[in-house]
């Protein structure tokens, strides 16, 4: 499986934008980029995914580099509830569904 | 629509015992996956079931097994428990098995092996 690299931790202030980076230099053409997050004492939850183009949904935006070797999850206005571990995951439609979680980025949001 | 439910939420067992964990997927979802989360190894894939058939298996010993029933509910079993099996066991359900079928996770079962 292609590997992702994320910073161990990041800090943000409430109501400010947050940019969470992810490097995936060995990404293949069929790999989708998924982001999940895990709030304290909960299971992971889906945030967003993309393939080549930038994507927006009600939770976040995903900016994908033109060469696809990196991506950035953007939270437009961080809230205290966004404090979580964010996982960047590559997954291809190969029939093997397992999500390979790395160590993720622990985001702290200060009031 | 109700989310993924897992029972029990907390469990304490002793070494050598066996344990069965249960997962009820979101209504209409036919795929159920199991993951183990530990502080040292993070989140690791155990296995996936779809329509009562195991489709994929992670790199875990044979003491870890699972099954899925016709109503898509799933159970996982761990026999001959070891201290290292202490972990949060997470179940995730999805409509299908495609890479774009979002996986919805339950709150997990916290297993402590003494």
Describe this structure in words.
The complex is a heterodimer of chains A (111) and B (114). With 111 residues, chain A is an all-beta fold. Chain A has strands spanning 9-13, 18-23, 31-38, 45-50, 55-56, 61-64, 70-75, 84-92, 105-110. In chain A, strand 6 (61-64) and strand 7 form a beta hairpin. Chain B contains no helices and eleven strands. Chain B has strands spanning 5-7, 10-13, 19-24, 31-38, 42-50, 53-57, 64-68, 74-78, 87-94, 104-105, 109-113. The model of chain B has no long low-confidence stretch (mean pLDDT 94). Classes of the chains: A mainly beta (111), B mainly beta (114). At the A-B interface, strand 4 and strand 8 of A face strand 4, strand 5 and strand 10 of B.
Can you tag this structure with a few keywords?
heterodimer; A: 111 residues; mainly beta; five-stranded mixed sheet; four-stranded antiparallel sheet; 9 strands; 0% helix; 47% strand; B: 114 residues; seven-stranded mixed sheet; 53% strand; globular
Write the layout of secondary structure elements.
The complex is a heterodimer of chains A (111) and B (114).
Chain A: E1 9-13, E2 18-23, E3 31-38, E4 45-50, E5 55-56, E6 61-64, E7 70-75, E8 84-92, E9 105-110
Chain B: E1 5-7, E2 10-13, E3 19-24, E4 31-38, E5 42-50, E6 53-57, E7 64-68, E8 74-78, E9 87-94, E10 104-105, E11 109-113
Parallel strand pairs in B: 2-11
Antiparallel strand pairs in B: 1-3, 3-8, 4-5, 4-9, 5-6, 7-8, 9-10, 9-11
Short description:
Helices cover 0% and strands 47% of the residues of chain A.
Order of helices and strands of chain B: EEEEEEEEEEE
Assembly level: heterodimer
Poorly predicted segments of chain A: none
Q: Give the averaged pLDDT of chain B, no decimals.
A: 94
> DSSP strand (E) fraction of chain A?
over 45%
Fraction in helix of chain B = under 10%
Portion of residues in helices of chain A? under 10%
> Given the helix and strand composition of chain A, which structural class is it?
mainly beta
- Quote the distance from N terminus to C terminus of chain A: 38 Å
Q: Biggest sheet of chain B, open or closed, and with what strands and sense? A: 7 strands, mixed
- What is the number of helical segments of chain A per DSSP (H or I, 4+ residues)? 0
Order of helices and strands of chain A: EEEEEEEEE
User: How large a portion of the residues of chain B is in β-strands, by DSSP E?
Assistant: over 45%
Integer-rounded radius of gyration of chain B: 13 Å
The whole-angstrom Rg of chain A is 13 Å
N- to C-terminal distance of chain B = 37 Å
- Can you count the beta strands of chain A? 9
- Poorly predicted runs of 5 or more residues of chain B: none
- Spatial strand sequence of the major β-sheet of chain A: 1-9-8-3-4
Give the overall shape of chain B, derived from the CA principal axes: globular
């Amino acid at each position: 499986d292609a590997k992702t690299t994320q910073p161990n931790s990041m800090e943000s202030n409430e109501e400010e934008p947050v940019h969470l980076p992810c490097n995936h230099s060995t990404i293949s053409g069929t790999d989708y980029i998924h982001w999940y997050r895990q709030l304290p004492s909960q299971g992971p939850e889906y945030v967003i995914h993309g393939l080549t183009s930038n994507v927006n949904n009600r939770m976040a935006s995903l900016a994908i580099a033109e060469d696809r070797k990196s991506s950035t999850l953007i939270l437009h206005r961080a809230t205290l509830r966004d404090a979580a571990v964010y996982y960047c995951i590559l997954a291809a439609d190969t029939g093997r569904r397992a999500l390979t979680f790395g160590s993720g980025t622990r985001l702290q949001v200060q009031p | 629509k109700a989310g993924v439910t897992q029972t029990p939420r907390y469990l304490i067992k002793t070494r050598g015992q066996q344990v069965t964990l249960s997962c009820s997927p979101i209504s209409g979802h036919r795929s159920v996956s199991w993951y183990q989360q530990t502080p040292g190894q993070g989140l690791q894939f155990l296995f996936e079931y779809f329509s009562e058939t195991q489709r994929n298996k992670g790199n875990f010993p044979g003491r870890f097994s699972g099954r899925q029933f016709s109503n898509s509910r799933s159970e996982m079993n761990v026999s001959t428990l070891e201290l290292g099996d202490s972990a949060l066991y997470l179940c995730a359900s999805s409509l299908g098995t495609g890479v774009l079928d979002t996986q919805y996770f339950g709150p997990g079962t916290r297993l402590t092996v003494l």
